[in-house]
């Protein structure tokens, strides 16, 4: 779906799915200048997270556990660099561990 918005228009994108095994919804950006998919953020169960490089430009919200929906909001007026293709993907919620916290470094 193509969305054309003017400079003052607010933009909100919605993503939903029906797979009961997937409790995480991720949002990606693909710009014309750089075709690599960049992770904007995700909703894991009901907890949203936005990558540092996108904070302030995007908000993520939703409930990926119960109603399987997530939203991508552009809180500020979109800029030219925000003109891109946006993807969402559903995933099984992963258990995150930071390896450096598992082992105490010897002094």
TrEMBL record:
UniProt domain Ig-like: residue ranges: 1-91
GO cellular component terms given for this protein: plasma membrane
InterPro entries (UniProt xref): Ig-like_dom (IPR007110), Ig-like_dom_sf (IPR036179), Ig-like_fold (IPR013783), Ig_V-set (IPR013106), TCR_beta_variable (IPR050413)
SMART domains with a match to the protein in the record: IGv (SM00406)
UniProt keyword annotations, A-Z: Immunity, Signal
SUPFAM superfamilies linked: Immunoglobulin
Any GO BP annotation: cell surface receptor signaling pathway
Gene3D superfamilies, A to Z: Immunoglobulins
Endoplasmic reticulum found in the keyword field: no
Signal peptide start and end residues: none
Record-given protein name: Ig-like domain-containing protein
Source organism per UniProt: Oncorhynchus mykiss (Rainbow trout)
């Amino acid at each position: 779906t193509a969305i054309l918005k003017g400079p003052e228009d607010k933009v909100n994108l919605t993503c939903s799915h029906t797979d009961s095994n997937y409790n995480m919804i991720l949002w990606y950006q693909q710009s014309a200048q750089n075709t690599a998919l960049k992770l904007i953020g995700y909703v894991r169960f009901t907890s949203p997270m936005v990558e540092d490089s996108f904070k302030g430009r995007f908000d993520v919200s939703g409930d990926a556990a119960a109603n399987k929906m997530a939203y991508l909001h552009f809180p500020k007026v979109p800029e030219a660099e925000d003109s891109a293709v946006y993807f969402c993907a559903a995933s099984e919620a992963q258990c995150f561990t930071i390896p450096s916290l598992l082992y105490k470094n010897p002094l």
